[in-house]
Design brief:
145 residues, single chain, alpha+beta, globular, three-stranded antiparallel beta sheet
Length: 145
C-alpha cells in the first residue's frame, strides 16, 4: 500500500498541480524550511462567498514538501477560508499516506503552515509538533522520497 502512496507523491513532485505564479492574489504567504532548504509560496484568490476560488504555489524543495503542497492545493479549492484555518497536521499526513519521520515532518507540514499564513494574512508562528512516540529512530526508504 505504501508503494501506491509513494508513487502518487513522486507524480505530484514531478508534475505538481496548481504550480506557478498568480496575478493579483487576494492572499499570499511564503516561508521556508531551513533544515532542508524547502521554499514555498502560496497565492490564493478568494470568491465573494469566502471560499478559495483558485490557488497557485511555487518554490522548490524535496519531494515531500512539494508533493504535499500540490496535493493540498487540489483539496482546498472551493474550501471556505475559515475552514482552511482549522486544518491540522492530520490533513497533510493523511494526504501523503506514508509514515513521516521526525526529521521530515517540517518538510511535510510546510505547505500547511504557509496556507494558514496566507489565510490569516500574516505569518503563522507555528511549529509542527514532533510525534516522538511514532517517529522511527532511523530514516527508512520512505523518508528518502
Amino acid at each position: 500500500m505504501d508503494d501506491l502512496y509513494r508513487e502518487e507523491i513522486l507524480q505530484h513532485y514531478k508534475r505538481p498541480h496548481n504550480w506557478g505564479a498568480m496575478d493579483s492574489p487576494d492572499l499570499e504567504a511564503a516561508d521556508h524550511n531551513p533544515l532542508c532548504g524547502d521554499q514555498l509560496k502560496v497565492m490564493l484568490k478568494v470568491g465573494d462567498d469566502g471560499r478559495v476560488a483558485d490557488i497557485r504555489f511555487d518554490g522548490h524543495g524535496c519531494a515531500i514538501s512539494q508533493a504535499a503542497a500540490s496535493m493540498a492545493s487540489d483539496e482546498i479549492k472551493g474550501m471556505p477560508v475559515d475552514e482552511l484555518l482549522r486544518l491540522d497536521r492530520s490533513f497533510i499526513l493523511d494526504l501523503l499516506g506514508i509514515d513521516i519521520s521526525a526529521t521530515r515532518m517540517k518538510c511535510a507540514l510546510l505547505s500547511l503552515k504557509v496556507l494558514k499564513s496566507a489565510g490569516l494574512g500574516h505569518e503563522v508562528d507555528w511549529e509542527p509538533e514532533t510525534p516522538e512516540a511514532t517517529a522511527p529512530s532511523s530514516p527508512t526508504e520512505r523518508d528518502r522520497i
